[in-house]
Design goal:
single chain; 443 residues; mainly alpha
């Protein structure tokens, strides 16, 4: 009887959370409320006196956050390095020079813009960095006549492709799997195993972007130049910062150190940050170095402050979700297909359900879905990672609820429905080969 009541309450709360997430509700609040609800539901099934309230509070609201500390450090250092790339001028210099070289051929220039965007965001992260680069690249695409309906998806899809090897986003998704005990003992963590899949996944998505550009090449060639951005700034000559050309490799340094030298993300990001300051001449004077160090750190941490709070609360939610779902593992196991190929194909076919924070988006209702799969204990951690992360990660490229996508459509005055119409087919088609790569290289 108690189990039936718990089941009904779980279903009702799950449906409520899905609706709340898909309507754009604040996820930090949603995760916290759901944690409390599911913890209370779990307590219904515990015989009185078996577990003290103090133990439940410690296990749910203390230990998961304390265990997550090392990951928070990676996020902070990753965000800081991304801000350093922007503030030292490397990101904008790459953007200006590349676009200038390709302006004689609009299609090649558009492809170059896509590749440069991807390069920058392998390390840069966040809406602040997207704005800093977008205000450079969108006017360039406007001047060569790239239609807005093409320019915006090119920019956002290229950022999304870079996210496959961006350590800041990786550790965020890995947070959903911290509390899972995989049958094979493996843990989802940053390193060569993941990058052996992440790099090919990035390449596949960028090929999708290039094909998208080539499909619309006629519209690009025949496009009418236009101006974007602040009317007061239009037409003014823009100067890009002078930095050594060889510093353009800095965005990929952390990934190279992790892949080639097997470095942990923390020292890799820290060394890359110091070298960027050094190579761009910001360590010539102690006073100047301290100023830019403090400035970039303050901006970076400010950008990710709300994200860190949400990730900590997410740890509470994941622990409560996995714990309460284990009570129903005997019921769930016969229902969920155990054929990994069938599940992988099904999740690719249903990938658009990740849109609007739906049931296949981990930063939405998908956070509850993955808890159900974890409760069965049937699948290894890397399979479950790919199952939800592939549709979630590709969806970042074309979902209007993603912060930098919202900014891009607003800045370019593009209708959201047009953005979705152009971008969703590209990301949806990319999920199939990327999931195939995951099957070959990841799980």
């Amino acid at each position: 009887m108690i189990l039936a009541i718990m089941g009904i309450l779980l279903v009702l709360s799950f449906v409520g959370f899905v609706v709340y997430a898909m309507k754009g509700g604040n996820l930090t609040v949603g995760f916290f409320v759901q944690t409390i609800i599911w913890t209370l539901i779990y307590c219904l099934g515990i015989p009185f006196g078996v577990s003290k309230p103090y133990d439940i509070i410690t296990e749910t609201f203390a230990q998961p956050a304390l265990n997550y500390g090392p990951t928070i450090i990676q996020i902070i250092l990753g965000a800081w390095f991304g801000r350093v790339l922007v503030d030292t001028g490397i990101a904008s210099s790459i953007s200006y020079r590349t676009a200038k070289i390709g302006e004689k051929s609009p299609v090649l220039c558009t492809i170059a813009v896509a590749l440069v965007t991807c390069l920058i965001f392998t390390s840069a992260y966040g809406v602040g960095s997207a704005i800093a680069i977008g205000v450079i690249l969108f006017p360039i695409m406007g001047r060569i006549g790239v239609p807005k309906r093409v320019a915006v998806p090119v920019f956002t899809l290229s950022i999304g492709a870079a996210m496959w090897i961006n350590s800041v986003l990786f550790v965020q998704f890995a947070a959903f799997y911290q509390s899972y005990d995989s049958p094979d003992g493996q843990k989802v963590e940053w390193g060569t195993h993941y990058l052996s899949f992440g790099i090919p996944a990035m390449i596949v998505q960028m090929l999708g972007v290039i094909i998208f550009i080539l499909i619309h090449s006629k519209a690009i060639k025949n496009g009418t130049p236009y101006e974007v951005g602040n009317p007061e700034e239009r037409g003014k000559a823009v100067e890009y910062p002078e930095v050594p050309v060889w510093t353009y490799i800095m965005p990929i340094v952390p990934v190279a150190l992790s892949l080639i030298l097997k470095w942990n993300a923390v020292p890799a990001l820290l060394l890359a940050t110091i070298l960027t300051f050094l190579f761009t001449g910001h360590m010539k004077s102690f006073k100047g170095f301290v100023k830019i160090l403090n400035g970039t750190a303050t901006t970076a941490i400010g950008d990710i402050g709300p994200l860190i709070v949400m990730l900590l609360i997410l740890q509470f939610f994941q622990h409560s979700a996995v714990t309460v779902m284990k009570v129903f593992s005997g019921v769930l196991t016969p229902i969920i297909p155990n054929n990994m190929a069938v599940l992988a194909v099904a999740f690719c076919v249903l990938a658009p359900l990740a849109l609007f924070r739906g049931p296949l988006e981990l930063y939405g209702a998908g956070s509850a879905v993955i808890s159900i799969f974890m409760a069965t204990g049937m699948f290894n951690s890397w399979f479950l990672f790919a199952l939800l992360v592939v549709p979630s990660m590709t969806c970042i490229s074309a979902c209007i609820t993603q912060s930098w996508n919202t900014w891009a459509t607003g800045y370019m005055e593009l209708e959201p429905k047009t953005f979705l119409k152009m971008g969703v087919p590209v990301y949806w088609l990319c999920t199939f080969p990327i999931m195939g790569l995951a099957a070959l290289l990841l799980f």
